[in-house]
Amino acid sequence: MSLGRVLLAAAVSVAALTVAREASAFCRTTTCNDATESCEKNERGCVRDGVTVVWKELPIIYRFSAEGSEKLSNRKVRAAVTAAFSTWESVKCPNGRTTSVRFELGPDIKVNKPLGRKQAKDNNGIYFRDETWPYKNAVDSLALTNQIYGEERGIIEYADIEINTAETSFSLSDDDTDAIDFQSVMIHEVGHYLGLAHSNDPESIMVPSYCEASNRCDKGVIGKRELSDDDIEGVCGIYPPGKGDPDENTVAPSPTGCTQSPSRGSDLAAGLALVFVASAVVRRRLRTSRPQ
Questions:
Q1: Taking the CB of residue 174, how many other CB atoms lie within 10 A of it?
Q2: Strands 283-288, 273-277: pairing kind
Q3: Which comes out higher in pLDDT, residue 268 or 286?
Q4: Widest CA span in the chain
Q5: 164-175 tens-digit pLDDT
Q6: 62 contacts 203 by C-beta, under 8 angstroms
């Protein structure tokens, strides 16, 4: 669920509330792990079993690993990550009011690795993998979002984002239209971080491939970072305006949505895969994984 993988811990298959959204393509992450379980999907591959995952309390904390990255400007990276989180929390919903989702930057994390479940609480981090990418398909993977959540209610307890700086040269420029834009990758990952899965809407930032829709990339860097109407409907559905805390079952997996399918070369052992297409021949994957 991301430009990367989402770590979903202790997922079980339980009946999910469903709401028909025929005009929507967005999907929610659910507790049914299709890497290890037989999960019912709709005609577009969206998982419908399980309960949808959600953060119960707002604001949602994120933190930086104090080590950062030796390959990217620390100042520019932090500005881009902050902008990515701000992109989602500043969304104006159809009723003209702003979504209730809120993020808060916490103090830096001294360790440069995701913590175990017992140590994870309040340590939701952004990590840069400069040396090696410790997962499969290193050359194709751009980033990975990991989550831990409860198996019955889907309440997210922890999340982190790992960036594959070992194999990928990211751009932090607002003018470099041909490079892989770090901020747009982060916007996609933050979408997973807050509970969205992949979308089959080619205009969506949550598509499984980077710049999959040519008209998005044709708009330049700004176009790569834009949220589509589908993305807006997704965040407004999970975190509607005027609510202090989200309802974990406000919106169920969309019957017209989609999660990453094996046909895009996803690593089923890792869970959902997000592939960003940098060009007609170069494919970059944003992967989502689930825990054991």
A1: 13
A2: antiparallel
A3: 286
A4: 47
A5: 999 999 999 998
A6: no
Cis-peptide, bond into residue 208, ω within 30° of zero: no
Mean pLDDT (the chain, rounded): 75
Whether this prediction's pTM lies above 0.90 is answered by no
Q: Which phi-psi region, left, alpha or beta, contains residue 206 (left: φ > 0; alpha: ψ -120 to 50)?
A: alpha
Which residues, at least 6 apart from 73, have a Cβ–Cβ distance to it below 8 Å?
Answer: 172
DSSP 261-292: -GGGT--TTT--EEEEESSSS-EEEEEE----
Tell me how far apart the alpha carbons of residues 199 and 292 are, in angstroms, rounded to a whole number.
25
The string of DSSP letters for 67-80 reads T--SSS-HHHHHHH
- pLDDT tens-digit map of 230-274: 999 999 999 999 865 554 443 332 222 222 222 222 222 222 333
- Given a contact cutoff of 8 angstroms between Cβ atoms, the answer to whether 6 and 147 are in contact is yes
